[in-house]
Amino acid sequence: MNKRLASRWLPLALYALLAVAALVLAATVNGYYVFVLGNVALLALAGIGLNVLLGLTGQMSFGHAGFYAIGAYTVAILTGQAGWSFWLAWPAAAVVAGAFGLLLALPALRVKGPYLAMITIAFGFIVEHALIEGGDVTGGQNGLMGIVQPSLAGIGGDRGVAMLAIVAVFVALAAYALLSRGTWGAAMRAVKDSETASESIGINPLMVKTVAFMVSAAVVGLAGGLYAPQAGMITPHNFNFMQSILFVLAVTLGGAGSLAGPLLGAVVVGLLPELLSSLEEYRLLFFGAFLLVVLWAAPDGVAGLLSRWRRNGAGQELAPRAGGGMSAAGRARRVLRADALTMTFGGVRAVQSVSFDVPPPPSRR
C-alpha cells in the first residue's frame, strides 16, 4: 500500500516542485533568458495539446501552427480592436481554435495516413494566406503590433507572460493526466490501437478522433493566445510550416503519449538551438544531427528512454539470485486474472465461464 501511494503521489510532488522551480527561475532571470523560458513554456503547452491528438489518438497533424495562429490573432484582435480584457480574450482564443479544429476534423478524419497529413498541411497554409489577405482586421503582411501584455500577481511584461505560460503548462499537464487515465483517454487509446476493434466494443472512432482534434486545437489556441502578448507583434509568417514541425518534434522527441514527453521535448527543441548559437551557420546542422541521433537511440522519445532505464533497474533489483528459488509471493504474482468470463454478441454466447491467469513476462537479462 505504501509503495502504491508513493508511486501515485511522488510524480505529482515532482511536477509541483518543477513548477515552483520554473516560476522561481522566471522571476529571477533577466532580459533575453525570460523570453527564451517563455518560448519553451509555450512550446510545451502546444506540445501537450498536440499530444492529445498524436500521442493518445495516433493521428498525425502537420498543421497545428494554424491553430496557434488562430489563438494569437484572436487575442490580438479582441484586445486591440474590440477592447476586450486579455482574461476574456484568452479563453475565447481556445474556443475559436477548438471550433476551427471541429471544422477541420469533420473532413480530415475520414481519411488516414499521408492523406490526413496532407490535409493538415493544407490547413496550415490556408490559415497563413487567409491572414495575409485579411486586410485591416489581420493587418495583412505587416500583421498586428502593440499587443498589450497581461500581468500575473502584479508582475507584467515578458516576465509576467512567461510565468503565466508556466502555470498554464502545469495546469494542462494535470488536465492531460486526468484525460489519459479516464474513460475518454481509454477510448482514444483503443482507437489508436485498432479502429475496428474499438467499434466492436461500442466506441465511435470518428467521434473520439473529432473530440481529440477539438481538444488539441483548443490547447494549442491557448498557447497561441499567450504568444501574441509575449511577442508584442505578430505577422502571418510567424506561423509557417516550420512551426508545425517544431510542435511535432517536441512531442515525438520527448515521447508521444507520455505525460512528461512534451515537456522534455520542448526543453530540448527550445533550448538546444540557443546552446548552439555560438556555432553560427553550423547551428542548424548540429541541431538536426543531434535530433537524428536521439530519435535513433530512443525511438519512443526521451520519456520512453528514461522509463526503459527505470524498468531495467527495477528488473535487476527484483531478479532472483542465482541458485535461489523463487518465493511463493513471486510465483503468485500475475499481471491479469479473469474469473468466470462470459461474452455474448446479440443472442450468440461466444465465451462462457472462462477463467485464466496471465503471468508476468520473464525478465530480460
Automatic annotation (TrEMBL):
Q: What InterPro entries does its record include?
A: ABC_transp_permease, LivM-like
Its GO CC terms are:
plasma membrane
Q: Name one Pfam family in it.
A: BPD_transp_2
Could you give a GO molecular-function term held by this entry? branched-chain amino acid transmembrane transporter activity
Enumerate the transmembrane spans: 36-54, 66-84, 90-108, 115-132, 160-179, 206-227, 247-272, 284-306
Q: Which residues form a coiled coil?
A: none
Name the domain of life this protein comes from. Bacteria
Q: Which UniProt keywords apply?
A: Cell membrane, Membrane, Transmembrane, Transmembrane helix
Signal sequence region: none
**What topology in the membrane does the UniProt record assign?**
Multi-pass membrane protein
Tell where it localizes.
Answer: Cell membrane
Protein name as annotated = Branched-chain amino acid ABC transporter, permease protein
The organism is Achromobacter piechaudii ATCC 43553
